Amino acid sequence: MEFGEKTLSKQTIYEGAILDLEVHQVALQDGNQAKREIIRHQPAVAILALVDDKIILVKQYRKAIDRAILEVPAGLVDPGEDWLAAAQRELEEETGYQADSWTKLFGGYLSPGYLDEYLQIYHADQLRLVDQPLAQDEDEHIELVRLTLDQALDMVNQGEICDYKSFCAIQYWQLLKAGGHNG
């Protein structure tokens, strides 16, 4: 079976700073028609940052879920910006750290049923604090939290860590430790 849908019409109903919302009328492969609501979103990066066998997380308020949560450092890739450069910038802005070693881990789409945002996760190693780090975004209010793997897993179970980029980073760290790697 060949998969696909043909867009018959498209309407942009919202254009924002980081996302656009489109409504598509599509022809399905069986000849029927359907409506698709699609969010177009800038790509993003997330960072598994480890210092002294602890993960660095940021605690911040997320209006979409109306609460503060713990997350791995992350942010948007600016138009034309290199992905690794975006990860390096976000790590410094959000944590005050720079890393001497970077590894591209994996990436993927967060929710491709309606969202085209692609997220790339990096592992930052050999971290050091910067004397005068890049400033945080004006609308960010962040608190740094450092957790052991067991503490991070407990926070996942308690729902304090509840986003998938952080789940994936913590899972990767757990696999690194299980494989006998330093992480």
TrEMBL record:
<dbReference type="GO" id="GO:0019693">
    <property type="term" value="P:ribose phosphate metabolic process"/>
</dbReference>
<protein>
    <submittedName>
        <fullName>ADP-ribose diphosphatase</fullName>
    </submittedName>
</protein>
<dbReference type="Pfam" id="PF00293">
    <property type="entry name" value="NUDIX"/>
</dbReference>
<dbReference type="InterPro" id="IPR015797">
    <property type="entry name" value="NUDIX_hydrolase-like_dom_sf"/>
</dbReference>
<dbReference type="GO" id="GO:0016787">
    <property type="term" value="F:hydrolase activity"/>
</dbReference>
<dbReference type="GO" id="GO:0006753">
    <property type="term" value="P:nucleoside phosphate metabolic process"/>
</dbReference>
<keyword id="KW-0378">Hydrolase</keyword>
<dbReference type="InterPro" id="IPR020084">
    <property type="entry name" value="NUDIX_hydrolase_CS"/>
</dbReference>
<dbReference type="InterPro" id="IPR000086">
    <property type="entry name" value="NUDIX_hydrolase_dom"/>
</dbReference>
<dbReference type="GO" id="GO:0005829">
    <property type="term" value="C:cytosol"/>
</dbReference>
